Amino acid sequence: MYQKLGKIFIGAVAAASLLGNVASAETWRAWNIHNDGHPNTAAMDRFAELIDTSTGGEITLEVFHGGVLGSQPDAIEQVRIGAIEIGNFNLGPIGPMVKEANLVSLPFIFKSVPHMFRVLEGEGGEIMAAAMGEAGILPLAWIDAGARSFYAQKAINTPADVEGLKIRVMNNDLYTSMISAMGGNPSPMAFSEVQQALKTGVVDGAENNFPSFKSVGHYEVTTNYSLSEHLIIPECICVNTAKFNALSPEMQAAVRGAAEEAALYQRELWAIGTEQARKDVEAAGIVVNEIADKSPFQDAMVSVYEDYLAANPEMRKLVEIAQSTE
Length: 326
Ligand code: GTR
Fold this sequence. Notes:
The protein is α/β, with parallel strands linked by helices and 326 residues long. The chain has helices at 2-19, 39-54, 72-81, 113-120, 123-134, 173-181, 194-200, 210-215, 241-245, 249-283, 295-300, 302-311, 316-324, and strands spanning 26-31, 59-64, 86-90, 137-143, 148-152, 166-169, 185-188, 205-208, 224-231, 235-240, 287-289. The chain folds into 2 domains: 2-145 and 234-275, Bacterial extracellular solute-binding protein, family 7 (D-Maltodextrin-Binding Protein, domain 2, 3-Layer(aba) Sandwich), CATH 3.40.190.170; 148-231 and 277-324, D-Maltodextrin-Binding Protein, domain 2, CATH 3.40.190. 46% of the residues lie in helices and 18% in strands. Residues 1-22 have low confidence and may be disordered. The structure holds beta-D-galactopyranuronic acid (GTR).
């Protein structure tokens, strides 16, 4: 009897599968570089819950925090080829792979975080998203990563203060040009190595936003955080394009909807987390330097733009879109 019922059931499932109306549940792996306590970690956990609900349990997200699935450039490549399905990536290290993503890595390209989001939500964002999708790493939603500023054992209030300093940067030639243009020595390095490098003096300084400055202990091995805000780089929740395209339109909408909701949650957490991180590092003794006039930094970047656009003239259009966005 049971056997017979079993056979009927299996037969029904097989028939339904042939008709294509039984989805098979999948588990997707997600990469996140941050630890507990960082806003993006909570947002990625929320994303996992949301995707479970919105897909009716058809897609389960297993989120790996703390960069345990590899460094960011490696993980970007893994999502691109489909070895990992999803990542919360900074667009900085995507630039070497997808030229259009490099728009956001031009220093001072955005006037503010809201301006950055306006560009991303307009034609500029569409062009970038299309190119990223084409490269295999499709953005489902943009998330906030604030502004990056310099920190070291001294104040960095002008580009001249960078002169002669070895500064850690993320992997992207635009950042090495940026530091060189200030007279510093750029040192590209994985995020996980920076604290030790600062501690042992392998580098003299680095640059990041307040939440990351705090979460991985860079504030424990520096004394000054100077608000140069030279880079406003967004992040994405990005999926392997082929995996996403293989889903039914309903499932695609469910996954995208979950990512968009998680992104909105991230932006809320980000605002609170940034303020809290600043308070915490100040309470721990970090001197935060306001920089009233950033124009010396901006002037130092003229050659970076000139050289980059001479070598990549096709990027002029995106730069113009960003600069003409109110
Ligand atoms: C953080 C960002 C990470 C990583 C890191 C870095 O702000 O969220 O994805 O890019 O900076 O400096 O490597």
